[in-house]
Amino acid sequence: MALSIDPRLAELLGYDQHLPALDPARMTRASLTQRFQQPPIWQPDVDVERWYRAPNPVAASVLVPLVMRDQPTVLLTQRTSHLKKHAGQISFPGGRSEPTDADAVFTALREAQEEVGLDPSRVDVLGTMPTYTTGTGYIVTPVVGLIDASPQELQRLHLQADPGEVEEIFEVPLHFLMDPQYHQRRAFDVPGMRIEFFSMPWTAQGGDKEYFIWGATAAMLRNLYRLLSA
Questions:
Q1: Band of the pLDDT at 189, cuts 50, 70, 90?
Q2: Which segments within 15-161 are labelled E, that is strand?
Q3: Average pLDDT, the chain
Q4: 3-state DSSP call for residue 227?
Q5: How confident is the model at residue 155 (pLDDT cuts 50, 70, 90)?
Q6: Contact 60, 138 (CB under 8 A)
């Protein structure tokens, strides 16, 4: 089952202003590390896109890269428009597991290096979150890692996008993504079902381009909020 929809045109159901923003004290290196070393009891908001079940789902991993600047950010990519799946969408670096990959963490680090030129040695892996099953047939393991940004890299991390897969590499403030007042709930109808999803549109201060974060990426960010705020 293939879906073709502009998510920006989906019905806006509302925001989640009733939920508190993540305390900035929980966005420090020490707090993030402790949270993964001693995880609380929590449940992800979304772990399966129920509108489609692939008969033979494929294992995959994504890296959720938290860039430890004075104000932490999340590194994201915009996919190229010619891809068969997820073309033009906002994504974490990542992809399908290969038979030679040791584990899900290895997959995420390998894919991040291939897609954005991120050296695995620069990533301090904190741990993984529960898998997320996409409607396009992937069982995705989100791998959360910290990237230190040195004083010489205050503007850019000097990464290199793979032009075959990645159109742009950018960063979004973690405090924005961890504030549910910016978590939109949207929905659209297809024959026989109603599909609901999260979106987190973001425009950089002074910028003129909106990055429409939605679908699996937005859902995994929402799950990260639940983990860090539990």
A1: confident
A2: 58-68, 73-79, 90-91, 94-96, 123-128, 132-133, 138-148
A3: 90
A4: helix
A5: low
A6: yes
pLDDT score, position 1 = 47
In this structure, how many other beta carbons lie within 10 angstroms of the beta carbon of residue 30?
A: 9
Total residue length of the chain: 230
| The dihedral sign for the CA sequence 148, 150, 156, 161 | negative
What is the 3-class SS of 144-163, one letter each residue?
A: EEEEECCHHHCCCCCCCCCC
Cβ proximity of 132 and 222 under 8 Å? no
Residue 37 pLDDT more than 90? yes
pLDDT higher than 70, residue 18:
yes
- The first and second tokens of residue 201, run together, are 């549109």
Instruction: Please give the average per-residue pLDDT across 45-53, as a whole number.
Output: 81
Beta carbons of 170 and 159 less than 8 angstroms apart: no
Task: Using the structure block, give the residue that is written with the tokens 């010489």.
Answer: 152
Prediction pTM value: 0.93
Name the residue ranges covered by the structural domains of the chain: 24-35+54-229
DSSP 185: E
Give the span between the Cα atoms of 146 and 185, in whole angstroms: 28
What is the CB neighbour count within 10 angstroms for residue 44? 18
The whole-angstrom separation of Cα 188 and Cα 88 is 20
For the chain, give the percent of residues with pLDDT over 70. Answer: 90
Task: Domain 24-35+54-229: give its CATH superfamily.
Answer: Nucleoside Triphosphate Pyrophosphohydrolase (3.90.79.10)
Strand pairing of 58-68 and 73-79?
A: antiparallel
Q: Output the pLDDT for position 207.
A: 81
CB 198 within 8 A of CB 219: yes
